[in-house]
């Protein structure tokens, strides 16, 4: 049975869920435009699992799961940045942290005996449980991401395509790369509640991969990435309302359909 998805918008929880999905789609696709071109797609999956181990640790010690998740992802991002400077390939560092974080997540959950819906909501996403303060955090993150790309647009553009040219132009490449890693960590962490640790990877990669198939310039690529990310969150959430289906799954499937259409169009 298919319901009218707009009926849910008559309730506060429905509006919050829709706004959270749209904002998550925006911030994930924004940093995803950098992730895809830099061939760092594994970052989404890796940091999402690192974040989930932080969530599990938060339940273990009785502290805010999102704050502990943010701490874990920030530390992981700093470690990856350091290992990369020491000559390690990105995938190697991310792979090590990926495996270690999953082991820690299982250990923390077993010690805390927390296997209920509260934990699973961070794994699979639960936008219907998003509170007003969660929306405020996502809104602040959206503004931060927008300002970051606005003021460092040229630097990000040059670093994305050639670090050598960026360094020769006098830009502080390592600092900007470090800040971008921290921004990715924040985006992954605060998108957990909307789409979940298992599916945040799709919003980081698929919208930008779709935009890449259709773009003829970097500006067009970035704009289409944002558009496809927002559409994935918006249409995916409405589909979830209509079918009474898990939101993370519907958002991912809508994003995949956009990718298929962009592939055919290109």
Describe the structure.
The protein has 266 residues and is mainly α. It has a single domain (5-265), classed as ABC transporter involved in vitamin B12 uptake, BtuC, CATH 1.10.3470. It is 81% helix and 0% strand. It is built from 13 helices and no strands. Helix 11 crosses helix 12 (218-243).
Architecture blueprint of SSEs:
Elements: H1 12-37, H2 42-61, H3 65-85, H4 90-112, H5 117-124, H6 132-151, H7 153-161, H8 163-168, H9 173-190, H10 192-195, H11 200-214, H12 218-243, H13 247-265
Helix pairs in contact: 1-6, 1-9, 1-11, 1-12, 2-3, 2-4, 2-9, 2-11, 3-4, 3-9, 6-9, 11-12, 11-13, 12-13
The dominant shape is globular
Work out the helicity level: over 70%
Number of helices: 13
Approximate strand percentage: under 5%
**How many individual β-strands?**
0
Give the terminus-to-terminus CA distance.
Answer: 35 Å
In short:
The protein is an all-alpha fold and 266 residues long.
Keywords:
ABC transporter involved in vitamin B12 uptake, BtuC; mainly alpha; 266 residues; single chain
